[in-house]
Amino acid sequence: MNTSILRVSGEVLSRAKELIAAGEVVAFHTETVYGLGANALCDEAVLKIFSVKGRPADNPLIVHVHKNYDITSLIDCEPPYAKLLREAFLPGPLTMVYPSTKKVSKYVSCGLNTLAIRVPSSPTAQAFLEATDLPIAAPSANLSKHVSPVTARHVYDDFNGVIPLILDGGASSGGIESTVLDCTGEIPVILREGLITREQIAAVAGDCGVYAM
Ligand code: AMP
Ligand code: MG
């Protein structure tokens, strides 16, 4: 398989949409690190992410959606603080974990009853997500245990000949990942620290815990 590195254009987005519809994996720029995306509604496509990345089957994936995507079909309920946090920080580097409606493939959340959702601000990511208009499951676009990629070249080094397309949006700023926030309880709880801080979250939500490892 040839691996193309391309900037987004009408033609490139049509190709990306075709590939995703065919169950393929497409890498794309985000503002944190590059992602390795596939159709979250399709079991085979999601399993392909785990196999090309060598990701352990018990490490759940984040679902990425465009800024106008209606997430109510994906999540079961949303506490009032989570709506405030979405309004304050999205699109941006905040991943929010909700009770799942189980509409997406069960392999996305590795059997958990929750679903992690993120709305990236990268224009490349937004264009890709809008073109497919699907929830796109995506971990960082590196082989398991490798460093998270911040350039298209970096993705190419791990996946040349294995994936068909890398959507190049330039360098991701810094390579710090999104903050993963549990929004299933009374107050939000940070599960993974990232670009958005506990103080920023608490300023909007009133309070914010940190999961003790
Ligand atoms: P990665 O995309 O590889 O950088 O990592 C995704 C992160 O999101 C991991 O730390 C996962 O454990 C976390 N994550 C994804 N889905 C869930 C979920 N449903 N509940 C809790 N954490 C999750
Ligand atoms: Mg990772």
Would you give an account of this structure?
This protein is of the alpha/beta class. It has one domain (4-177): Alpha-Beta Complex (DHBP synthase), CATH 3.90.870. Helix content is 28%, strand content 19%. It is built from six helices and eleven strands. The protein has helices at residues 10-21, 43-53, 80-89, 123-132, 152-159, 198-205, and strands at 4-6, 26-28, 35-39, 62-64, 94-99, 114-118, 136-137, 165-167, 179-182, 189-192, 209-210. Helix 1 packs across helix 4 (123-132). The protein is globular and about 50 Å long. Bound molecules: adenosine monophosphate and magnesium ion (MG). Adenosine monophosphate (AMP) binds at residues 59-62, 97, 109, 112, 114-116, 139-140, 177, 180, 191-192.
- Specify the CATH homologous superfamily: DHBP synthase
The count of β-strands is: 11
The succession of helices and strands, N to C, reads EHEEHEHEEHEHEEEHE
- In CATH, the architecture is Alpha-Beta Complex
Cα end-to-end separation:
41 Å
Uncertain spans: none
Shape: globular
Structure classification: alpha/beta
Give a short summary of the structure:
This protein has helices spanning 10-21, 43-53, 80-89, 123-132, 152-159, 198-205; strands at residues 4-6, 26-28, 35-39, 62-64, 94-99, 114-118, 136-137, 165-167, 179-182, 189-192, 209-210. The protein has 213 residues and is α/β, with parallel strands linked by helices. The protein has one domain (4-177): DHBP synthase, CATH 3.90.870.
